[in-house]
Design goal:
Order of helices and strands: HHHEEEHHEHEHEEHEHEEHEHHHEHEEEH
Radius of gyration: 23 Å
Shape: globular
Number of strands: 15
Number of helices: 15
Helix content: 25-40%
Strand content: 5-15%
Distance between the termini: 35 Å
Strand order of the largest sheet: 4-11-10-9-8-5-6-7
Structural class: alpha/beta
Largest sheet: 8 strands, mixed
Length: about 450
């Protein structure tokens, strides 16, 4: 059953650690069946309850899954093997379009913003006991949310979108709860959910975001939370329009106890309007990150939501890191208040590259998707082969396995590094690698 690998340990923590080591080293493969609890207990000379406790810990950590009489097995994508590891390393001479980074040329210079933050800190050093959110940071964030018709709520700062989403989910959910996740969707979030003991339920998307039929099915299946991307969806570039938002609001209104989390990381580098779903359910949160528009290394996000959710998030944060560095908050305030990012110009720059690539692929008979943001999603019949052929042709792209659960195969191409002269050669290479054109099958 386990081949050469031997699970060891006399206590639950030791047994679970032994399994995790095997998964992390690759000696226990994704999908591999684990011994029945009584059988393993007999082998190790421990009480079956000890093995049961170890398996429970492994389930909560997203390492294994249990399916009744079929037993326990390593998850197809265990938390100890993150989707980020499903990447292609670009050797010298290969153009890397796989990482999802913004174009450095479109990021603002940070020197003046940090100089101003340091100057203000010199006049008034941050101390324990002060508000975790700088008043000006909160005021500017609230103003931006209000401009997009996001309901009024408390402002909380977090260390990036994923940190914010994790804190919101933890504020309401318990181990084993089901969360509706876009499919294809953000690989880091697909990793996070099982890693914190939750169960992801795939929700199919098209270029307008989550499909209403897929959301309805997930709601009927009993999801306790739904995470949606407002615009610049990763990896497809989907953006929720007015009609789709109205459809989703109507569905969610019938399930007011479902926690709704909206990821608006596209704010400040996407120019399509936001159509918020916030306020439709009793508990909700809208999250915005500074990473893609201002710089990935800033690690600052802002979120707002209903009073209960924000109180829980802020309260738990106080018991951990306490607050997001107010030096970083001061720098972001400076960036926001001086208009450091020209949103229409940045959106136009990414849009020109996306549109050119999608059009060039269409001319070659290849279907591609990329309505907003900095990525283009190309459905393919064999993503492993397509990635390998593109690598041989001099282009590194991200394999769709990083972003999929049940969705058809595909590859993600980040357009940020592209120049106009790249479009034709890249489209030729994708057409040669992708095989017959095949659009996304939307359920």
């Amino acid at each position: 059953m386990l081949g050469e690998y031997m699970i060891t340990g006399g206590r639950a923590a030791e047994i679970s650690a032994s399994v995790e080591r095997g998964v992390g080293s690759g000696e226990l493969k994704p999908g591999q069946l684990l011994p029945p609890m009584r059988e393993l207990a007999a082998q190790l000379g421990v009480n079956p309850n000890t093995v049961a406790a170890a398996y429970r810990t492994l389930r909560e950590r997203g390492v294994i899954e249990t399916d009744g009489r079929r037993g326990s097995r390593v998850r197809p994508r265990p938390a100890t093997t993150a989707r980020g590891s499903l990447r292609v390393e670009a050797p010298p001479g290969v153009r890397d379009l796989s990482k999802g980074n913004p174009d450095p040329e479109l990021l603002p210079a940070l020197g003046e913003a940090f100089a101003e933050a340091v100057r203000a800190y010199g006049e008034n050093p941050g101390m324990y006991g002060e508000s975790p959110v700088l008043p000006q940071f909160g005021a500017l964030a609230r103003e931006a949310f209000a401009a997009d018709a996001v309901p009024e709520g408390q402002i909380v700062a977090a260390s990036g979108s994923l940190d914010a989403i994790e804190r919101v989910l933890a504020a309401h959910l318990k181990t084993g709860d089901a969360v509706g996740l876009e499919d294809p969707g953000w690989g880091s979030l697909l990793d996070l959910v099982p890693a914190i003991g939750l169960r992801g339920v795939p929700v199919a998307v098209d270029e307008e975001g989550p499909l209403p039929a897929a959301v309805e099915q997930a709601l009927r299946a009993g999801i306790r939370a739904l995470v949606v991307t407002a615009r610049a969806q990763n990896p497809t570039g989907a953006a929720i329009g007015a009609r789709r938002a109205a459809e989703l609001r109507a569905l969610l209104a019938a399930h007011p106890e479902v926690l709704l989390v909206e990821d608006d990381h596209g704010h400040a580098f996407v120019d399509v309007p936001l159509h918020p779903l916030a306020g439709t359910t009793r508990h909700w949160a809208v999250v915005r990150s500074a990473s893609k528009a201002y710089g990935p290394d800033l690690r600052v996000a802002v979120l707002t939501g209903d009073g209960t959710t924000m109180d829980r998030v802020a309260g738990r944060q106080r018991l951990g890191p306490g607050w997001v560095s107010r030096l970083l908050q001061r720098a972001v305030v400076q960036l926001w208040s001086t208009g450091a990012v020209d949103t229409p110009a940045v959106a136009r720059s990414y849009g020109v590259r996306r549109s050119a690539l999608v059009a060039a692929l269409a001319e070659r008979g290849v279907v591609a998707h990329g309505r907003t943001g900095m990525n283009v999603w190309v459905p393919v019949s064999d993503e492993t082969g397509a990635v390998a052929r593109l690598l041989h042709a001099g282009w590194a792209v991200a394999p769709g396995a990083r972003f999929r659960a049940d969705a058809p195969q595909g590859v993600r191409i980040t357009v940020s590094p592209l120049t106009p002269s790249d479009i034709g050669p890249l489209a030729d290479a994708v057409a040669a690698a992708a095989g017959p054109a095949r659009p996304i099958s939307y359920g």
